[in-house]
Amino acid sequence: MLHDGGKGMIFLSILQAIGLFLVTNIDDIIVLSLFFARGAGQRGATRRILIGQYLGFAGILGAAVLVALGAGIFLPPEFIPYFGLIPLGLGLWAAWQAWRNRGDDDNDDDEAKIAGKKVAVWAVAGVTFANGGDNIGVYVPVFLSVGPGAVLAYCVVFLALVAVLVMIAKFIATRRPIAEILERWEHVLFPLVLIGLGIFILVSGGAFGL
What interhelical angle do 28-38 and 121-130 show, nearest 10? Predict the structure, then answer.
């Protein structure tokens, strides 16, 4: 049975984990909302987005734990900014697809418009992981300052909150005014956000001497 002091430490660790997760992942809501807009009406889109988010975030946690354990040789800090190539490439591909299909919108029937576009698990996972460079930079010193038990507690709380984050993004993306805007401009916003995210990660991290 835990003493009051032990219970207090656990409660404090949980609160710290929640705060840390919110600070480092709040920006994911925008990207996830665009994924939901892109997959609107697609059967299984929510499941694929959820799985992709979990896979990407599991990669972030795994990398942070490895670096904290002194295995930085497998993930040198100078390599992290190059993760920006993932959303940049996906954004450029989405922009090319939108440009190639620019004349199809007027010819699509309502059912085709409602069907949305296929959202791939690997795409969500890749963008999530690429956007996690700052997460790794924040998590490593925190993990280094606490014991193994606290690290495990942090990871459990983080993984539980991933589902909450995805549900919040879905809620936002399905509100009628927002959904109407996303439905109309998703083909422009989706590539722009990914391209901008990729460039930001590359430039802010000094990739290619930028």
Answer: 160
- Structure tokens, 106: 């007027």
Q: Cβ(31)–Cβ(130) under 8 Å?
A: no
Reply yes or no on whether the pLDDT at 200 is more than 90. Answer: no
Q: Both tokens of residue 121?
A: 């698990």
**Res 59: pLDDT:** 94
Cα atoms found within 13 Å of the Cα of residue 182, Cβ hemisphere only: 27
Check residue 182 and give its pLDDT.
72
List CB contacts of 75: < 8 A, sequence separation 6 or more. 63, 66, 67, 136
Q: Which of 189, 182, 184 is nearest to 36 (CA)?
A: 182
Tokens linked to 85: 């190539």
Q: How far apart are CA 102 and CA 150, in angstroms?
A: 51
pLDDT band for position 142 (cuts 50, 70, 90): confident
